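Narrative of activities, Objective 1.

The group set out to show that a structural description can be obtained from nothing but a protein's sequence at a throughput compatible with the screening campaign. Below is one input-output pair from the validation batch, recorded exactly as produced.
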Amino acid sequence: MVPPGTSGELQGLLCLLVMICAFLYSVWKYAAALTHGLETAARSLHRMTDFADLIGAQSDSASFWTPPVFFPLTLVVLAALLLIPCNYYAFWRGAKSIYLMRRLPDRWELARRCLAIPLLTVACALLLVVILLPAFYGIYLHLTPEDALRPGQLDKLWDNFANLFLPFARPERMYY
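Output recorded for this entry:
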């Protein structure tokens, strides 16, 4: 379900490759932050860093150069949405099959061909966030000693939920 003159296999493979890279970056970034937090808590006998801080949702040190764990998935979604006009433009090239597509009895065929792979990529990115966020939280709870946990971890996460995907933190919403 792609425009003529484009390869659906190539588009699908590129989207899959980008998703794998975003997944690997997210896991790597979280593992590095968790390791650093556990080492700091063990060395100084203080409480563990908040989960929201580990994934980059709230932090005074977060900036564009230190993006949150899920920031690459935001870029995947933006790239997939950018693919929609590119697919639509493909109908205007060459033999201009846009005229044929507009005459088809099924008027949604053009939309299906332009939207199929980009929307599937967006859905996969959102599914990946839905899978990774509880997995990361479970790993955090499992590896952090009980006496090092701070109360209200989920409240802090939900209060800063929008910052999971954007590389700019809001220090005024931080908890100490």
